[in-house]
Design goal:
- The protein is α+β, with helices and mostly antiparallel strands and about 130 residues long.
- It has one domain: OB fold (Dihydrolipoamide Acetyltransferase, E2P).
- Helix content is about 20%, strand content about 50%.
- A 5-stranded mixed β-barrel has the order 1-3-4-6-5.
- The model has no long low-confidence stretch (mean pLDDT about 85).
């Protein structure tokens, strides 16, 4: 049985990145996915976590309010509450995160590529 999930929605709070002592990046953020119309609208919130290079790339690419698509798998963690009882939390461990172009225009920043191309075509002395 597969526990893969695809979510599309808006980032609900600024993604928070942190690093483990070994240097691995961990990014956590929430995604609000709304379905239905008018008084039938329902919003579901998902806790999402991304690791390593994906975490760093997502942190540098999206912010609160951005429309995203997340592909990942559901995981459930158990923890002990302050009162000593057991609790469970569910999260989506992201395998892929992308910007959704359904409601927003997304333009890739190609500044570095353009600068390299210009420098390759001209002698550096001509430019400066």
């Amino acid at each position: 049985m597969s526990n893969n999930i695809i979510i599309n929605g808006n980032i609900g709070q600024p993604p928070e990145i942190r690093y483990t002592p070994s240097g691995m990046a961990i990014l956590e953020f929430t995604v609000a996915s709304t379905s239905g119309k008018d008084d039938k609208k329902k919003t579901s919130w998902f806790n999402v976590v991304a690791f390593s290079k994906l975490a760093e790339n997502v942190a540098g690419s999206v912010s609160k309010g951005d429309s995203v698509i997340v592909f990942g798998r559901m995981e459930q963690d158990e923890y002990t509450k302050k009162d000593g009882t057991k609790g469970k939390s569910t999260k989506v461990v992201a395998d892929e995160v992308g910007v959704s172009c359904r409601w927003n225009v997304w333009v890739k920043d190609r500044t570095n590529e353009t600068v390299k191309a210009v420098l390759a075509q001209h002698d550096e002395d001509e430019l400066f």
